[in-house]
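Note to self: keep these together.
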Amino acid sequence: MYVLVYEYEVAEEQRSRFEEVYGAAGAWAGLFRRGRGYLGTDLYERVGGGRYLLLDRWADEAAYRAFQEAFGEEYRDLAGRTRDHYRTETRLGVVPDGPGLGHGVPRP
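Structure:
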């Protein structure tokens, strides 16, 4: 499994909109589902409010790279349209492929 981990800071007035777009049933997950090997998105609100941890799960790095190549234009378009849904976006890292990985991802 290949997991991309992001943290977002979201203004109070944007939280509902952010959760709709970035959650498991949102626009981003809808775009990702078009790619082979997409396994799901998990969105966690962190303690303290207004901060979220987001995990995008892919079968492996090759599946994620193939998605980027096939849907790069749509990805950039959606990124431009949703940039105002949060204050900051920080890519915390990637949990790469590996034996026994399972769901060994950071917890909020």
